[in-house]
Every structure is written in structure tokens, then in C-alpha cells.
Design a protein that fits this description.
With 96 residues, the protein is mainly alpha-helical. The protein has a single domain (5-95), classed as Recoverin, domain 1 (Orthogonal Bundle), CATH 1.10.238.10. It has five helices and two strands, in the order ααβααβα. A two-stranded antiparallel sheet has the order 1-2. The radius of gyration is 13 Å and the shape is globular.
């Protein structure tokens, strides 16, 4: 099932909310800092973008396990262009 427009926004908001709730149930500030650090470390080109696989690995490193459909939704929503690289800076801004 492909998501576009409003459906993509709704699903992305749901996933972001779920991640925020997960972080609030533990020490959220430490988890956000850890995630931000992991994202920057994985950014081999220094352009604030990651492949979907790199992004997923960073999330998993802070115990955020997403369903493939939800990961694809985030990838599509936070992709700057058609190359599918995720703008993790925008993701972190939205998460905060």
C-alpha cells in the first residue's frame, strides 16, 4: 500500500507520536541525544541525509523498532528528493 498526501501525513504523524511516547516512557532527553549522535555519526557525507537502511540502524540502536511500512512512510516523508535519502535533521526537528 502506497501512501501519498494526507495519508502519508497522517501515518507519519502517528509514527512520530509513537516514537515520542516511547522516549517519554524512558529517559527521553538521553534517548534523543543518543539518537541525534548516532544519526550524525552515520552521516558519511556530512549532508544531513542517510539511506533508509542507515536510518533504520540508528533507530534500532536506541531501541526504536519500526514496522517496514512505518519505516517506508518516514523515508518517503523525510526524503529531500527522489533518491530516497532521509533528511534526519528535519526528522529530529519534528521529533522534538
Amino acid at each position: 500500500m502506497a501512501l501519498y498526501g494526507v495519508q502519508l501525513d497522517v501515518n507519519t504523524n502517528r509514527v512520530i507520536h509513537n516514537i515520542q511516547m516511547l522516549f517519554s516512557s524512558i529517559d527521553g532527553s538521553m534517548s534523543l541525544l543518543a539518537l541525534d549522535r548516532r544519526l550524525h555519526e552515520a552521516d558519511e557525507f556530512g549532508n544531513k541525509t542517510l539511506s533508509l537502511e542507515q536510518f533504520d540502524d540508528c533507530l534500532k540502536s536506541v531501541a526504536v523498532i519500526l514496522k517496514p511500512f512505518d519505516l517506508q512512510s518516514l523515508g518517503k516523508f523525510f526524503s529531500r528528493n527522489e533518491h530516497g535519502r532521509i533528511d534526519y535533521h528535519d526528522f529530529m526537528e519534528r521529533l522534538r
